[in-house]
Amino acid sequence: MDKKEQIIEVATALFAEKGFENTSISEVCETAKVSKGLIFHHFKSKNGLLREIFSRTTDMIKKNNLNHNDGNAYDTISLLLNSFFDQLKRDKTFLQLNVSVISQPTTREIIKDLVKERADLIFRSTKKLFDEIDPINATAKSYMFISELDGIALNYLSIFNDYPLEEIKSLLIKKYLHQ
């Protein structure tokens, strides 16, 4: 792993564990065993590091959830839901940090343009699916679908230790694929 990736991995873990505001650049440097100069070379600032982490999470979401448009809408929703639940388990630390930074006013301000860009991308991709399934209600169903996934992610990542993720997955797949 190169130093830039190491910094991102360490910062993600520290920001997720301690919070962005409670983690100093010095602590990231010490844990990653890199100099402050290297962090500032790659990211310009602590805010820049946060923006890079958030952008990478958006890239993961795009790769894992938004590139399934080969089949019909129902096939795509099935692939998307399976990918979404797999990603929740696989990328838990990255996603926990996302929930945290989006929820905090100071960090949300740092990434608000990236949040808007991600939200728009997710909405457009989702609406394209629901336009095929139910053009009349596509907008409302898209918002509802996104809200359900956001709620599931929030509850799994931040609230319940014993969240029944597999049961929820099964019920959601039945709901959207057996209409």
TrEMBL record:
All copies of the HTH tetR-type domain together span 1-61
**Database matches in InterPro entries:** DNA-bd_HTH_TetR-type_CS (IPR023772), Homeodomain-like_sf (IPR009057), HTH-type_Tx_Regulator (IPR050624), HTH_TetR (IPR001647)
Q: What is the protein name for this chain?
A: TetR/AcrR family transcriptional regulator
Pfam families associated with the record: TetR_N
Identify the keywords attached in UniProt to this record, alphabetized.
Answer: DNA-binding
Q: Which SUPFAM superfamilies match?
A: Homeodomain-like
PROSITE patterns, from UniProt? HTH_TETR_1, HTH_TETR_2
User: What GO annotations for molecular function exist for this entry?
Assistant: DNA binding
Question: Whereabouts does the entry annotate DNA binding, in residue ranges?
Answer: 24-43
